[in-house]
Amino acid sequence: MSDNKTYKQLEEELRSLKATVGKLEKRGGGMLSSRDFTKRVVRKEKSKKDYEKLRNAFYERNWKEIDREFIIEPFDELQLTPFSYDLSIGNEIFSVRKTNRIRRRLPYDVAPGETVIVLTKEFIALPPCYAATVWPRFNMVKAGIFQSMVKIDPTWYGKLGVAMTNFSPRTIEFKEGKAFGTLVLYELASDPEVYLWQAKDLKPVQIPIPNIPVRAKLQEKLEDRDLTNVCWVEDNSLVVKGLKKPDYDKLREIDRSEPWQETVEKARKSWLEYIDKDTGRKCIGMEALGMEDLEKLIEGPAMGEPLDPEKIRETKVTSDLLFDVALEHGKPFDLIANIPKLVEDIPKLVEEQVDKVVEVTIAKEIGRNVIPRMLQLTISILGFLALIVAIVGLLAGYFQLTFVQHIDIPLALVVVSIVICVVLFPTGLYLFSLKGISKFKKKLEDVDTRLDNKTEKLRKEIEKVKETMKQLKK
What is the structure's pLDDT at 403? Predict the structure, then answer.
């Protein structure tokens, strides 16, 4: 019976292998076309039961229930291209520029130079036979938006977080549902050796820690290096769960003794040799797997040290410092290097502008008030002269004065003189009356007062600018 049972087991394994080979033979590898997308995507709107069954299989990592189907939800054929699918912005966005990285609800105005992380509207789930990349769309590039390249590993499920930077000089609005990147799917020629797994579901491996000095404070050192999410101390053993290269390097730095270095190397080998019994594959822990929002993606402390406002205030800006910044960072910092020279030149420029303003103001006042009055005065004087000429001409003709006997005064000149007198005499009479003279004098005084007020105002502005320049130099 034992031999018969073994034979049946071998026969079952052979059938399973043949089925697997048959599936693999169907794969050609390469990119999926739009026909492949519509044929293999499982849509919730068409069959909610099949969609929920496939989605649960991804959550449970039950690959026996999954063949070549994948999930893009929601799926809209209008966003399908010949060999890709256009992804759209979801309802969450994070600004990397903000100190606390507060979540923003869309729409959101992305300022020039600002980097944001957007959550896709689509939930994507890929079986082991597929991988994918997200490429930027030309319309976004044309607008000045730079998008980071995104790769999607086989066995991934969840939404995506995509970083984008506004390199344009304009503020650009990000709206929910706006297409921003295009998803390209690749069918693999064979299944990968490593599958993604949620870090919390990984099974740990244990490595005994030899009796060395570092063992007493090892847990504390692991906490200081933020390693307790992948390894910790338990019963004098190092428990490893999802070890990665950066974690391995941090472990080696804890102690340089040979016994500890050997322990870390054993932990590395044990984790690399770990195989999941259900899938027969190695596993990589990923915190963001199954991501429905951006909380998982941005949790934890930000990299780098934030700027200290006090240190910024204490920093003395010099021409040499700005020049070094311009050389290091290039444009547009080359313009900043000239700020000290500009600060020194501002008072001189302001005084020049004030002089120009005063000159223009005086010219306007003269043109508006003084010149018309001078014209009136000139015309009145001419009128009086004409009057005198007319009177002399009439008297000479009437009395036949001897001292003008040889002077020929035409009758036309006399008539013209009389006309000029009639027209200009009232004007001259008014202008040279006491009332006219007083008004003219008052007008001149008003012009002088306005000029003095404007000049004084401009002088005060100069003093303010000079005071500001002194503070800037300090």
Answer: 47
| Cβ pair 333, 326 in contact under 8 A | yes
The dihedrals phi and psi of 78, each to the nearest 5 degrees, come to -70, -20
Instruction: Quote the CA–CA distance of 234 and 242 in Å, as a whole number.
Output: 16
Q: What is the pLDDT of residue 450?
A: 74
How many CB atoms within 10 Å of residue 72? 23
- 432's tokens: 């040279």
How many residues can be counted in the chain? 474
> Element (H or E) spanning 117, and its range?
strand 115-120
Before 107, cis peptide (omega within 30)? yes
- How far, in Å, CA of 338 to CA of 355, rounded? 25
- 425's CB contacts (< 8 A; 6+ apart) are 383, 384, 387
Element (H, E) at 248: helix 245-254
Which two tokens mark 20? 């697997």
Rounded to whole angstroms, the Cα distance separating 348 from 326 reads 26
Joined tokens for residue 429:
């009479």
Q: What is the Cα–Cα distance from 427 to 407, expressed in whole angstroms?
A: 31
- d(Cα 425, Cα 391) in Å, to the nearest integer? 13
Give the C-alpha separation, 309 to 407, whole Å. 96
Task: For residue 272, give the amino acid letter.
Answer: L
Q: What does the DSSP assignment read for 293-349? A: SSHHHH-SPPSSPPPPHHHHHHPPP-HHHHHHHHHHH-TTHHHHTTHHHHHHHHHHH
Q: Are strands 130-136 and 150-152 parallel, antiparallel or unpaired?
A: antiparallel
Closest CA to 37 of 72, 87, 1, 2: 72
Q: What angle do CA 280, 283, 286 make, to 5 degrees?
A: 150
For residue 200, how far is the Cα from the chain centroid?
Answer: 35
* pLDDT confidence of residue 214: 85
Q: What is the per-residue pLDDT for 1?
A: 43
Q: Which of 96, 98, 94 is CA-nearest to residue 108?
A: 94
Question: Residue 70 forms beta bridges with which residues?
Answer: 41
Considering the entire predicted model, what is its pTM?
A: 0.61
Pairing verdict, β 194-197 and 282-285 = parallel
pLDDT tens readout for residues 45-78: 888 889 999 999 998 888 888 888 999 999 999 9
pLDDT < 70 positions in the chain: 1-5, 18, 20-29, 98-104, 299-308, 329-377, 379-380, 382-387, 389-441, 443-444, 447-448, 465-466, 468-474
**Does residue 127 have a cis bond before it (omega within 30 degrees)?**
no
Q: Which residues of 425-456 are buried (b: 16+ CB within 10 A; e: fewer)?
A: eeebeebeeeebeeebeeeeeebeeeeeebee
For 455, residues 6+ apart whose C-beta sits below 8 A from its C-beta are 358
